[in-house]
Amino acid sequence: MFFSLAINPIVFSIGSLPVHWYGLILGFGALAGLFLAIQEGKRFNISQEFFMDMLLLGVPSAIIGARIYFVAFKWEDYKDNFIDVFKIWNGGIAIYGALIGAIICAIIYFRYKGYPFWRVVDICAPGLLAGQMIGRWGNFINQEAYGGVVEESFLRDKLHLPDFIVNQMYIENAFHHPTFLYESLWSLLGILLLMVLRRQRFVRAGEIFLSYFIWYSIGRFFIEALRTDSLGFNGSSGVASFVNGLWSPMKWMGFEQGYFDPAYGNIRISQLLALLIIVAAVVLIIVRRVTGQSKAHYSDPIVSTKPVAADSVVPENAVNTPQKAPQAATPDKVKSEDAEPKE
């Protein structure tokens, strides 16, 4: 027997205020990303306070960007219920919108702190994937961002998934692709890849961050077509055929695209955007190398252009200032002391 919602989305309540799994999972994902950034930042002598402040500013910026992006493409669903725009605990945020919001915040924050943008976002890239890897489990709890209908045997016998995942994928009287899990595992592989890549001497400034976009977008392109809730628009039939043609290798492996409501269009926005991001990232890597904009390597020191604050300089007469060791007597001094008459 299956239930419409196998896992209660509310963890507990504080009075009349419910605490949702969705928010807790997103928060845990943000902390995991922060931990990875702090650990790598130690290699470059960047304080953990810098990354903690970045998180405090970046998370609200990402949530706002993610929600604006999602609502903009589904305005028809919100224009008559404007209060629902703010109910993010019910889901409905877009990763690409979150990245836009976070990047805008990062540009401003890094400039204020005097750190080069490309160097710091390289450090943060694995943390972004960690946040996405964990955050997708919030979609799992909410039973959203799932794929098309599949047989129960596909989940149990081919994917060998545990009962709690299989049961949660029983939605509207049918089993569905656990696309949240596909993207979560893809992000995990991406973290490992970036961690190996950033230890390679040939990697230049900005290339870890751009590699993150390439990796994530490749996975998102193929996984997105499995979903049944894609944002879309009406584009040319040629572009739609091109996108579907690139996705065709998934059909050879036995996958079918999820239902895409014709009312939303004939092109999934996230698929097209993923392709554009891949091309843009590759071109940007090449251009930055050819023009010399990426002279610094990933392993080079990172220095802030902001001067050290006056109150952080320790005065010479401070209590904890080490005393100078007595100097050894020079030969001339020894001679002059020997020359003095002795009593």
TrEMBL record:
Protein name: Phosphatidylglycerol--prolipoprotein diacylglyceryl transferase
Record's keyword terms, sorted: Cell membrane, Membrane, Transferase, Transmembrane, Transmembrane helix
Membrane topology designation: Multi-pass membrane protein
Primary localization: membrane
Residue sites binding a 1,2-diacyl-sn-glycero-3-phospho-(1'-sn-glycerol) per the record: R136
PROSITE patterns: LGT
Region span, Disordered: 314-343
Job of this protein: Catalyzes the transfer of the diacylglyceryl group from phosphatidylglycerol to the sulfhydryl group of the N-terminal cysteine of a prolipoprotein, the first step in the formation of mature lipoproteins.
EC identifiers of the protein: 2.5.1.145
Pathway: Protein modification; lipoprotein biosynthesis (diacylglyceryl transfer)
Superkingdom of origin organism: Bacteria
NCBIfam families according to UniProt: lgt
Localization in the cell: Cell membrane
Pfam families named among the record's database cross-references: LGT
Chain intervals with Basic and acidic residues compositional bias: 332-343
One function term, GO molecular function aspect: transferase activity
Family: Belongs to the Lgt family.
Ranges that cross the membrane: 20-38, 50-73, 93-110, 179-197, 209-226, 269-287
